[in-house]
Amino acid sequence: MPAQSPAAPATASGNPFAGSRFYVDPDSEAVAAVARLRNSAPADAAALSRIANTSHADWFGGDTANPDAVRTRVAGRVNEIRAAGALPVLVAYAIPNRDCGSYSAGGAGSPDSYRAWIAAFAAGIGRGPAAVILEPDAIAQTDCLSAADRQTRYSLLSNAVDVLARAGVAVYLDAGNATWHSAADTAARLRAAGVDRARGFALNVSNFDETADERAYAAAVSAALGGTAHAVIDTSRNGLGPAPGNVWCNPPGRALGAAPTSNVGDPIVDAYLWIKVPGESDGTCNGGPGAGQWWLDYALGLAARAAG
After folding, report:
1. Prediction pTM value
2. InterPro entries recorded for this chain (predicted)?
3. Which entry of 25, 63, 99, 213 is annotated as an active-site residue?
């Protein structure tokens, strides 16, 4: 891709979700589970339909040593979604030292490898509307890094914002959640990662905080950034709020939250999204399989306890 000047801040371009269609994956694990259970356990199938019939983001975090592969996979998915007349909502999840070595550890093996990966990721998106949630937990978890690695991470995130913005993507840097860092602290971290050139930030990704609390936090963070940054909130599993003690890894007793929508009546919040795929495990905790693996029992619980 030829060198280009940095894009103008995406905050000026308007809410990318307004008037856009949310894509429902016809080949998801939830759809397959509904088909398997329809005859043998119709009540379970009906509950799971709440997941199967709802849009969720697509996560990309592999192929860090093979940029051609990630470009091909992203392009295939994006083309499928656009062919359906919907807006691609993707998660980039390959930052070096990902998840501080915890359940979702991994990511690119070096800064150069990540730069190549994010360039390939953006190339796969091509030209056209899309939204990207950039690197869940990467900003909130910088405390686990050395001072040098922390600066490298901010540099990589800032470069990723520019690469994606040049492709016309609405970028939302992940900013943790309302219970993690103060609004002023989060705003400073976002500033270091280039949020001024992004659409804004994402909150509550893979977490369970109450939507009202996250909306208030979004307003505080945006105000600390000068009021121009917008937010999206993950409502995939917060229908009953956080678990006792704010347990975040496969906590029991949780429920699906509000379905994805841009009609939230909030000047700061662009949309509620299901960024975490409901039914995919947080990791090998509380009886779950590996991070990102489908867990039918947990999905059933989320769906059965959902309102409506």
Report:
1. 0.94
2. Beta_cellobiohydrolase, Beta_cellobiohydrolase_sf, Glyco_hydro_6_CS
3. 99
